[in-house]
Each structure stands twice: as structure tokens, then as C-alpha cells.
Amino acid sequence: MEINAVVLFELDVVVPAQQFRIEYTLVDKGGLPVVPEFLLRLLKISALLPAEIANYFGFTAQELSFAITPFLQTGELKTRPDGRIELTDKGRGLFAGSHESPIVKRKEEREQMFVFDLLAFTCLGKSLGDAHSKRCLELQAPSDTLSESGTKAVGAFMRQIYDIYRAGHLGGQAQDAGPPELYKVAGVQKVRDGWEKIEERVSLDADSRQVRFVAKEGLRENEIYMRQRTEQLSRLLGNENLDQVLQLADILGDSDAYDFVSSNGMDLSVLYHSASAVSQVKESSGLRLFGSLQLQQNWDRVFSVLRKHQKVLQSGPQAAPISLSWLAPASHELWGRSARHAQICSAFSELSKTKGKGGGSDGKRIFDAKILIPVSASDDWPAIKRAKGDCDNAKLHLCGFVESEKLAPLEAMVIHGQCAVVIYHLVLPTLSPVPIPFGFITEDAAKIINVENLINRTMGEYVTGNTQRYLGSFERPSA
Prior knowledge:
Arc Repressor Mutant, subunit A; single chain; 14 helices
């Protein structure tokens, strides 16, 4: 990663992959046993009579015949009219290059497993991991690729034989000079399907002031992969929402947001310098946040504030459970598409289980926890199913609401009256391939009330069909 880059977003991408059993034959180059090697090295210097060879090695007539006959039969040696034994052109070819010793070729039949992705057909090794597509951006292979994957895998195996060998997948070592020669591929059989997971990071570059993916070698730099990634992101990113973000900042009294965002767009230079400065600060309360909640540094800061208030509330008496809510944004479909999202869901779920330790609250849960998920309607089953999959570590807390244009860019995590985390998901497709998240953490009572009032008023609204916007839990109560 660039030294001066500021990471704004993390995203897990999965690429379809298949494991194949490939039967192939290698022509391996290797040395000879000591006596045959020195026999050929001797004859490389000069042609000799059989008696001279026998005398040099101390051979009997039978031993001499045993030593030279195989080379005469395979054409590396020949007998001249004067009776001397000499190397043929084929025999001299065994000393090609800088080798002082003869190198012979042997055919070796093998059968091994190899894994290839189905976009660029890059060899990913021998084992197909257990990666799944949950919480990931899925890329898909064309239908013709799926029907011809075996043939394409063989072609890729033949083209990449050197790289495969250098990676050690043929049994060679990375420092070896070169791969064995591939003689033929006898057969290929698909064993199973799976996914290759790629952890992508999007950053604001210090020099170019551009939002772009962090460059890494391998599949990430493949043209087919990058094109599909761009197409999928364009489909899921949503429309520009600059005006909605500015309206939210006004409603929440967040005048500092105008340091980065104005009606003219976003000032990436100011954003970069502010994010760089914040990264050096350890305090959490009253701190600006740059980048998604899933970034480790951001979540560590947020969770430290949540934990602080958890301990305070845990030790004091509570007449009733206190609201702990997490509002998901609706302005794009990339929320939660990373492995770290599962960790946050688990942490939120564990936080919700907190029980009081004093007074009348002893042993009782102190939080009424909800994760508020936007859906298009009460019967938006695809969105509900996806939310249950993405947040399965906290699915008992999932509650739906009919999405609101006003709340669409907003992600918020609030402990009633104690603290609030606000993240705006700014979508500017011409500037960034992913949302540009930024916001703040506050323990200021007035700001917390602003956040809570906005969410509560919106949840209390009625939508088409005289239906309340807030739909309640996704989990049906047991009979």
C-alpha cells in the first residue's frame, strides 16, 4: 500500500474458481549416475578405443559392454570406422549450455490438483479453500466459460507452467533455474466449484488526490477482473447523494462537515489532511471519523466509547432497558460486504447481552438492541434474506423499516442519551468507485438528541398504504 494513502473503504470480492485434476507428463532434466557421467565427460574430451576406456576405468570386457551399450542403443555414442568410441551430435547435446556434466531428459507422468479462477484463469494453487460469497461482492464467470472451463484450465496450465513451477506447485523450488519441460496433458477433470476471496481496500492517494483501489499484484491487476469489478460496483453504488448528505449535516448541526463537503462537491485535499491528522489521535469522543465503520481503526475507536458507557450503565440501576441501535444506510448496496462486518455484528450482539450488576438491575439486560435495516417494502424478501445472511451473528436484533430518502446516506450507532456514532455515506460516482464515508463520534447531549430525534421521527412516519415506516423484527415470534 502507498505510504501516504488514507484507506476509506474495505470490500471483499469473491471470484468463481474451480479445482481440476490434471494428468500430465513432464520431461524432467537430471544428471546421470557417477560412472556413466564420467564416461560421457571423458569421451567429450576425445574419442577412445574400447580398450583405452576399459583401462581408464578398470573395467572388464563385460563391464565395459554394460557401460557403453545403452548409449550406443540410444544414439548418444557411436563407433567410428577406426574402432574408437565417440559422442554423436545427440550426445554432445547433453552438454548444452554451461553444464559441465551431461543432462538427460526423463518422462514422468503425474496427476495433481490445481485451482484456477474462472475470470482470468490464473492458477491459485492446489487447494480450493472454504471461502463463501456471504458478505462479498460476487463476480460471475460468463456462461461459455463455465461450459468450457476444463479446456480453458488446460490451456492456462500449459501457458503458466513456469509460474506454477516457480510457486512450488509442481514440487520444484522457487530458487530453481527453470521448470521441467511439459511433454503433454493427458486429461482434465473438474473436481469442485468454489470461490477465491480477494480483500480490496480503497484509498485516497496523497499525491494524486484520487480515490482508487490499492494496487496489488496478481488477479487484482487483471483486466477482466477489474472490468467486472467496475461493472458490479457501478450497479451497486447508487446515485449521487451530495444534497442529502448536506441536508443531514444541517439537521444534525454538523457544521464541521462543510470543511469537506459543499454544494460544489468534496474537497479531497482537505479530507486527506484531516484524515491523516485524525489517524494520529488516540482520543475517541468528539473525534471525526474518516472511512467506513468496518475499518479496524474506526471500529476500535467506536467500540472503546461503547464499552465505556456499557460499564457505566452496567454498574448503575436501570428502570428499563436502554435503547442501543445501529442504523444501516440505504444509499448503496455495499454496506456489510466485508469479513469485518461479521466481527462488528458479533461485538454488537455481545454488547446487547450486557446484564446489570447492581440494584434492581442485577442480572437483567440493560440494552434493548436493534439493527435497523432499510427495505423497499414489508415483503422485500431478497433484502430481508440478504440482511439475515450478512448479519447472521446478530440476526435476533434485525428490524426492518421502509427506506427513507432522508435517512438513506446515514449510518448511526446510538446508546440512548449516552453517545452517538454518525457516518455519512457520500456517493459521488464520478469521483469514487465506492461510497466515501465520514462522520463523527459524540457524547454531547444536544447532538445525541438530534440524532435520536431524526431517527425516531422517521421511524414513526407512515408510508404508502397507511403502513408505519418501522416494520419491527425480522424474526417471527414463536407460537
